[in-house]
Amino acid sequence: MRVRTSLRFRVTLSFALLAAGVSSGLAGVLYVLTIQMEERLIEEKLSAELEDYMGRYALDPDTAPPSSTTIRSYVLSAAGAGRSLDTLYELEPGLHHINLDGTGYYAEVRVSDGTHFAVLYDDTQIRHRETKFMLFLAGGAVTMVLLSAVLGWWLARRVTYPVCELARRVSDLSPEAGSIVLGDIFPNDEVGQLARDFDDYQRRLAEFVDRERAFTGDVSHELRTPLTVIEGAAEIMLADTDLDEANRGRVERIARAASEASEVTSALLLLARKENSEAYTVSECQVEDVLKQVVQEYLRIRNKKSLFMELNIEERPVLEVEPSLLRVVLGNLIRNAYAYTQKGGVKITLKNDGVIIEDTGVGMSDTELARALDRHYRASKKGGGIGLSLVKRICQRYGWNISLASEAGIGTRVRLWFK
C-alpha cells in the first residue's frame, strides 16, 4: 500500500537520508583510516624499540630487554616444550595481534641468527580509545542527521511555500469570482510558469463558459420559436375537418415530436443553469396533475397497440420542482415502458415517496440493466439515445433516485424515489 505524504515531509526525509548516508560513510572512512594510522604508529614504535634492543643485545647479551607498563620484551632462542611463550616463537617476523593470558597485544617479531626477538604492546588503552572514537563518530553522525532534518524542514518550507500558496489560491478560484491573474503574483520560475498555465486554463474555461451561455441563449431563441410555429401549425391542421385519417395521424406525429422537442429543449436549458441560482425559483408542483397529463397523452397515442395503461393514485405528493422537468422524467419512463411492451400493459402507481412503473414487456438483460441510464446508450433501435440519461441528470439535480429491476421476457419495474 502506497503511503501518501506531503512534499515538505519528503524533502525533509531526503535531507535526513542524504545526511545519514554521507555522515555514515565519512565516519566509516575516518574510523578505518584512524585504525590503520594507529597500527602504523604502533608498528614504527615497536620496530624502533626492537632495533635498539637488538643492537644493544649484539654488544651485550646480558642487556635487560625494555619493559614498562605497556611494553614487554622477550628473547627466545628456542621453543621450549610446555612454555607459555611458545606462541611468540611460532610467529613469523613482522607485526601481529595476539592474545596472551586474556590480554590483547600488538607483537613485533624479528629473527637474528636463530634468535627470536619479540616486543609486546598492551592494546587495552588503544581499544578503549577506539571505542570512545567510535561513539564520537556515531554521535556526530546522529547529530548531523538531526541537523540536516531540521535544515531540510526549514528549507522545505521555504521551497514549497510558493507551491502551497499557488494551491491555496487555485482552490479559492470560483466562476462567480471571475478570473484572477496568478502569473503576476509569483516570480518568473517554475511555479510562476505553472501559475501562468493556470491563467491560460482560466481564460480557456471562461471562453468555454461564454460559448455555452451564448449557445443556451441561442437555443432558447432559435429553437423555441420554430417549435412553437410547428405546434401552432399542427394544431390548425388538426382543426381542419376535411383532413383525412391518414394525414391526421401524420400531423399528430408532427405535433407530438414538436411537443417532445420543446420539452427536451426546456429541460436542457434548465439543467444548464447553475443550481440554487438566486434568479431561479421553483414553485410547488402537484405530481398527480403532471402524471395524469403524461398518461392521457400516451393513452391518446397508443395507435393500434392493444395495451392497457393502469394509473393508481394512492397518495398525492407535492414537490418543489419545475413542472417541465418532472414531465420529462415521467414521460421518458412511461414512454420506454410503453415502447418495449407488445402485450399486456403498463401499470403506474403514485405514492407519497415516489412513482412505480411496471410493464409486461420484453425486459432487459443484466448488461442492459447495468447501462440503461448511461448517456447515449441504446439497448435497441427503439432507444431514444438521451432519454434515460437525461432522466438521470434531472434526478441528480433534485436528489431523486431511480431503481430498476427487470427480467428478460417478463417485464421491467422502475421505481422513482422522491426522498
Low-confidence segments: 274-279, 381-385
Query: What's the β-strand tally?
Result: 11
CATH topology of one domain: Heat Shock Protein 90
CATH architecture of one domain: 2-Layer Sandwich
- State the helix count: 10
Approximate helicity band:
55-70%
Describe what this molecule looks like in 3D.
Among the domains are: 7-77 and 86-145, no CATH class; 282-417, 2-Layer Sandwich (Heat Shock Protein 90). The protein is built from 10 helices and 11 strands. It has helices at 7-59, 86-90, 124-171, 190-222, 224-238, 245-272, 287-300, 323-339, 366-371, 387-398, and strands spanning 71-76, 94-100, 103-112, 115-122, 284-286, 308-313, 318-320, 345-351, 354-359, 401-407, 411-417. The strands form 3 sheets. Strands 6-8-9-11-10 form a 5-stranded mixed beta sheet, with helices on one face. Strands 1-4-3-2 form a 4-stranded antiparallel beta sheet. β2 (94-100) and β3 (103-112) form a beta hairpin. α5 packs antiparallel against α6 and α8 runs antiparallel to α10 (387-398). The longest helix has 53 residues, at 7-59. The model is unreliable at 274-279 and 381-385 (pLDDT under 50).
